[in-house]
């Protein structure tokens, strides 16, 4: 594994977590077994472990006691169209915390919550936002 910052997300249901990340955000599953998955998007890689793998570990108790696992943390997915991800999230019954919108820092982003309470922020630079509206071109 390469050096650098890695995330390890503990989840209740591995299949549901992988489904959100692949179907909603367009991430790739590099490896998976019954309780672990290795995921990738645009060169970034992270891990997902199902809760049972952490049952004997002190993190397991902390996770079980947490009311929302992702509170205070945004997982940003640069290069993922926020409008498209937002529509896919709605179609699959996931929460849209904040609608896709242009931000003053130069990104268009949306805030989506997965089944475990992690907040994902798909975003693209404003320079990549399509502003063409059908029927308004010359």
Structure description:
- By secondary structure, the chain is an alpha/beta fold.
- It has helices spanning 14-24, 58-65, 82-91; strands at 8-11, 28-32, 36-41, 44-50, 74-78, 95-102, 107-113, 119-125.
- The protein has a four-stranded mixed sheet, covered by helices on one side. Strands 5-8-7-6 form a four-stranded mixed sheet, covered by helices on one side.
- It is globular, with a radius of gyration of 16 Å.
- The termini are far apart.
Report a brief summary of the structure:
The protein is an alpha/beta fold and 138 residues long. The protein has 3 helices and 8 strands, in the order E-H-E-E-E-H-E-H-E-E-E. It has a 4-stranded mixed β-sheet, with helices on one face. Strands 5-8-7-6 form a 4-stranded mixed β-sheet, covered by helices on one side.
Please describe the structure with a list of short key phrases separated by commas or semicolons.
alpha/beta; 4-stranded mixed beta sheet; 3 helices; globular; disordered C terminus
Strand content is 35-45%
Mean pLDDT across the residues is: 89
Which percent bin holds the helix content? 10-25%
Order of helices and strands: EHEEEHEHEEE
- Helical/strand content category: alpha/beta
Please mark out the parts with pLDDT under 50 across 5 or more consecutive residues, or reply none.
133-138
Q: Globular, elongated, flat, extended or rod-shaped: what is the shape?
A: globular
Distance between the termini: 52 Å
Number of helices: 3
Query: What is the CA-atom radius of gyration, in angstroms?
Result: 16 Å
Strand order of the largest sheet: 1-4-3-2
* Major sheet details: 4 strands, mixed
